[in-house]
Write a structure and sequence with these properties.
alpha+beta, Phosphorylase Kinase, domain 1, Transferase(Phosphotransferase), domain 1, 2 domains, five-stranded antiparallel beta sheet, two-stranded parallel ribbon, 12 helices, 11 strands, cAMP-dependent protein kinase
Length: 357
């Protein structure tokens, strides 16, 4: 079977899958989300990371003895930082999204103090950690990763959702060496409309965001181009210490490629990192097929990758499902807070949930 025949077979199968996924998503997305677990259902084993949002901890479900990652956020911090809507959107989307290369949600809960999201644990760490260790990815490995990301984007875009926060830190690697896109806090269901919110990581911002122009999935295809560049080069195409200078470079759309970039890679980037959205790949008549059928992806079997039948050229070394070597060691211990009353019950219940009976 030729590469073109493989692509046609893939398009036929994947288009059917996307249509079915869209129907199911639309039905589920309008439904109320209920809590399906409690904090006391888990044994917390170790703090994996900390941020302004709260903590991510390694935990074990007492009910099935399986290991998970738990994002634990204090409700008072969510209110203080005005992240209530983002948190609600993240939970609602994670509940209804089901794709191999996007992190899945095992459950979520709320008590008087916390909102907790329980997810599968991808214990090989994030892409940023491996990119920093390897300096840059060999082009074949970068292509393998890029294929998974574009499949994930094609899936969520078909659901009418944009991602808006692509970067190596938000891409996890699992035991088999495959990817899981995580942190859906900036995702937004916009369907065929536009949005104007300024959000994302500076080096990955699309020109239309910086210029305060209305945007849609265009920003994800720009950030995809930035990711493909960074995976192959080891650094982003646009960089500057001064944020304003960085934004000027992005808006100009001028960048240079290292000499070791292949001709095919340069051509793909030239069609992704383009300021004029009417010419950017992913947004043209053929949509994402312009990317997947590009010469850089020649001989890439998207069906085999989707089925996880391709053996990655790089598989991080981990001993078992609780090995946390790829996460920054933290001596911080979680002291679980308790409160007799919930000061924010109405705010959270109004946004996205009905309390567990």
């Amino acid at each position: 079977m030729t590469n073109e025949e493989k692509l046609q077979k893939h398009y036929s199968y994947f288009d059917q899958f996307l249509r079915r996924a869209k129907r199911e998503f639309e039905i589920k997305f309008s439904q109320e989300i209920k809590q399906n677990c409690l904090l006391i259902d888990f044994d917390i084993m170790k703090v994996l990371g900390a941020g302004s949002f709260g903590l991510v901890v390694l935990c074990k479900d007492k009910r099935d003895s399986k290991t998970y990652a738990m994002k634990l956020m204090e409700k008072c911090n969510i209110i203080k930082t005005r992240q209530l809507a983002h948190t609600g959107a993240e939970i609602k989307l994670m509940k209804n999204i089901n794709f191999p290369f996007i992190v899945d949600m095992h459950g979520f809960f709320m008590d008087n103090v916390y909102v907790g999201i329980v997810m599968s644990f991808a214990n090989a760490g994030d892409m940023f950690t491996h990119l920093r260790e390897l300096k840059k990815f060999e082009e074949g490995l970068a292509k393998f990763y890029a294929a998974q990301v574009i499949l994930a984007f094609e899936y969520i875009h078909h659901l009418g959702v944009i991602y808006r926060d692509l970067k190596p830190e938000n891409i996890l690697v699992d035991l088999q060496g495959y990817l899981r896109i995580t942190d859906l806090g900036f995702c937004k269901k916009i369907d065929n409309t536009r949005t104007y919110t300024l959000c994302g990581t500076p080096e990955y911002l699309a020109p239309e965001i910086i210029l305060s122009q209305g945007y849609n999935k265009s920003v994800d295809y720009w950030s995809y181009g930035v990711l493909v560049y960074e995976m192959n080069a080891g650094y982003a195409p646009f960089f500057a210490k001064d944020p304003m200078r960085l934004y000027e470079k992005i808006v100009s759309g001028k960048y240079s490629c290292p000499p070791f970039f292949s001709k095919q890679l340069k051509d793909l980037l030239g069609n992704m990192l383009i300021v004029d959205r009417s010419k950017r790949y992913g947004l043209l008549k053929n949509g994402v097929k312009d990317i997947k059928s590009h010469d850089w992806f020649k001989n890439t079997d998207f069906d085999q990758i989707l089925s996880k039948k391709v053996i990655p050229s790089y598989v991080p070394k981990v001993d078992n499902e609780t090995d946390t070597r790829y996460f920054e060691s933290s001596s911080k211990k979680l002291v679980v807070k308790k409160a007799s009353t919930d000061e924010f019950a109405k705010e959270f219940d109004d946004i996205f949930v009905t309390p567990k009976a």
